[in-house]
Amino acid sequence: MTVPNVKLNNGTSIPQLGFGVWQVPDDGARDAVAEALRVGYRSIDTAKVYENEAGTGRAIAESGLARDEVFLTTKLWNSDQGFDETLRAVEGSLERLGTDYVDLYLIHWPVPEYDRFIDTFKAFQRIRDEGRAKAIGVSNFRVEDLRRVIDETGETPAVNQIELHPGLPQDELRAFHAEHGIATEAWSPLGQGESLKAPAVTEIATAHGVTPAQAILRWHLQLGNVVIPKSVTPARIAENFDVFGFSLSDDEVARISAIEGERIGPNPAEFNLR
Ligand code: NAD
Fold first, then answer.
1. In 10 A of CB 272, how many CB atoms?
2. Non-local CB neighbours of 244 within 8 Å, separated by 6+ positions
3. For this UniProt entry, which residues form the secretion signal (predicted)?
4. Architecture of the domain whose range is 5-258
5. What gap in Å lies between CA 231 and CA 36, rounded to an integer?
6. ipTM value greater than 0.90
7. Could you tell me which residues are beta bridge partners of residue 160?
């Protein structure tokens, strides 16, 4: 099965379908990532705060795949924001991951009240220039935060990884990303399981002989989103990867986009957890 790539503004590409490991303990991440790589995923999304960079890195090292066959993302935690702090934090992440570079390094949250994401992004530019991150981006950034990064650093983040699922389709951010060449990466793409119950999803899934999770992942792919569903169950890991044998009509995409819902995670304007 060939996963399409989405081209990033630094010239590299990210697989449109990857695998996320939030809320998976380190040992479990080792097993889940090993299974995902076995099934065919070639993009893995972790973060310092997930406390499973070591297990993730071990699974990649033990997979038999060459390092450059796997697109690896990690994220800088809020308490590490700031220029010098960021340069220190990347060392820790690379050491735990057991690699000398990541394919994508993201600022996990903007934390507007700290007002340190500009200095943090400038440190990211240095990290990228030194070859320790191939691409640099952000997560949970609002339009106003993205505008500041672009205006004050002269560089557009390659990716903005945001909460995005049928109940929160993020039209405003997606439009801004499209205008500026920022790849949209969807976190909690299945609404942490909630979106699977929506009648429009179950009806469309039945019509195609697929599962609700597959219908939602197909919706993301057809919208152009990069998507990183999480599961630790081998059957679901495989199911979530098997989404290239059917497609939704424009009307079905629109019906899923019209599902009413709300934000599951924190509001980026306020989130400041250290
Ligand atoms: P998700 O939408 O991927 O949902 C995961 C949950 O859905 C699973 O725990 C399971 O209960 C269920 N599920 C998965 N596959 C299923 C299937 N085929 N059938 C039925 N149920 C299924 O939610 P998530 O884990 O929150 O998000 C995915 C990834 O996004 C995370 O692992 C992480 O890598 C990333 N993420 C990033 C941020 C951020 O702030 N940048 C925040 C949250 C998550």
1. 13
2. 1, 2, 3
3. none
4. Alpha-Beta Barrel (3.20)
5. 9
6. yes
7. 138, 184
- In the reported structure, the alpha carbon of residue 151 is separated from the centroid of ligand 1 by a whole-number distance in angstroms of 33
Q: Which two three-digit tokens encode residue 182?
A: 């920022």
What are the pocket residues of ligand 1 if the criterion is a CB atom closer than 6 Å to any ligand atom?
A: 20-22, 45, 108, 139-140, 161, 187-193, 196, 211, 213, 228-231, 236, 239-240, 265
Angstrom distance (rounded) from CA 258 to CA 198? 11
Q: What is the Cα Rg of the chain in Å?
A: 18
- The model's pLDDT over 139-155, given as tens digits with 9 standing for 90+, comes to 999 999 999 999 999 99
- Specify the residue for token string 């500009």: 118
Question: Binding residue per annotation — 108?
Answer: yes
- Centroid of ligand 1 to alpha carbon of 119 (angstroms): 30
- Count of C-beta atoms within a 10 Å radius of residue 187: 21
- Every domain of the chain and the residues it spans: 5-258
